[in-house]
Amino acid sequence: MEKRLVIGIAGSDGKEFHDVAILPNTRASDVLSQLNLNGFQLAKPEGGMFARNDNIFDAVADGQKVYATKADVEAGA
Amino acid sequence: MNWIERLFGPGADRGPHVIGPRPTLIMPKAPRTVVPPPRFAWDEKRWRRVPEPGAVHYVGAYRVWDRGQRGWHAFDGRLVEDASGIKAYVADPPKEIKGHPKGPCFQLVQAPWFRVHWRRNPSTVDEALFYVERLLDECLNRPLRGWL
């Protein structure tokens, strides 16, 4: 059983989308590395970010859109 | 050829030729596929773009799922993009922000609005939006996951 996802790149005006299919136990890092999205992280649909080792298969629905956003943004006092 | 065909011609034994209205076949029309236009993430998240003199404001709400209370929290937000970069504001952040490592980066500018100061600037409005939602998620769901 697989799930299909649309990975959108944040800030690209929707011009950069990747259609991917994932299998059970797929981690966020698996998706990012296979799409060559180094320095990115995947945003959870419910807010926040997936950790690299999070199992995203269980956390997303089939057909869902998930955004990849750069991981180097950081708040500072 | 049987005797009827021999007498009346070929096909004479097939019975009368019935003429009636032509059947009308009604079928569902093929569905028309509507392809959504390309959108920024802020647009997908239903924020509004408000042009102002010298800047563009993006107005909406940061939305975060509270896993403990099993409900959505929405925090009014505003992102201001001008020549100097992107400024992020959030109204009434959760009280847990005080204990967050990035809590000092939230500066009260005018109640209830806090500005998020950057150490490394986002290059797009989408990045700023996702980052603030990430901090709010960490505040609300810290007991379940711990600080990153």
Beta strands of chain A, count: 5
Biggest beta sheet summary of chain B: 6 strands, antiparallel
Spans of at least 5 consecutive residues with low confidence of chain B: none
Low-confidence stretches of chain A: none
Count the DSSP helices of chain A: 1
Number of helices of chain B: 3
Strand content of chain A: 25-35%
Helix content of chain A: under 10%
Q: Please list the strands of the largest sheet of chain B in the order they lie side by side.
A: 1-2-3-4-6-5
Q: Please bin the fraction of helical residues of chain B.
A: 10-25%
Assembly of the depicted chains:
heterodimer
The N- to C-terminal Cα distance of chain B equals 94 Å
Instruction: Tell me the strand order in the biggest sheet of chain A.
Output: 2-1-4-3
Q: Which pair has the most extensive contact? A: A-B, 23 and 38 residues
The coarse overall form of chain A would be globular
Query: How many β-strands of chain B, per DSSP?
Result: 7
Q: How far from one another are the termini of chain A? A: 46 Å
Largest sheet of chain A: 4 strands, mixed
Rounded to the nearest angstrom, the radius of gyration of chain A is 12 Å
Description:
The complex is a heterodimer of chains A (77) and B (148). Chain A has 77 residues and is mainly β. Chain A has 1 helix and 5 strands, in the order ββαβββ. In chain A, strands 2-1-4-3 form a 4-stranded mixed sheet, with helices on one face. In chain A, a hairpin with a 7-residue loop joins β1 (3-9) and β2 (17-22). Chain A is globular, with a radius of gyration of 12 Å. With 148 residues, chain B is of the alpha+beta class. Chain B has a domain at 41-140. Chain B contains 3 helices and 7 strands, in the order ααβββββββα. In chain B, strands 1-2-3-4-6-5 form a 6-stranded antiparallel sheet. In chain B, a hairpin with a 2-residue loop joins β1 (48-52) and β2 (55-66). The radius of gyration of chain B is 34 Å and the shape is rod-shaped. The mean pLDDT of chain B is 87. The A-B interface holds A 8, 10-11, 13-15, 43-44, 46-49, 51, 65, 67, 69-70, 72-77 and B 37-41, 44, 62-65, 72, 102, 104-106, 116-128, 130-131, 133-138, 141, 148. β5 of chain A pairs antiparallel with β7 of chain B.
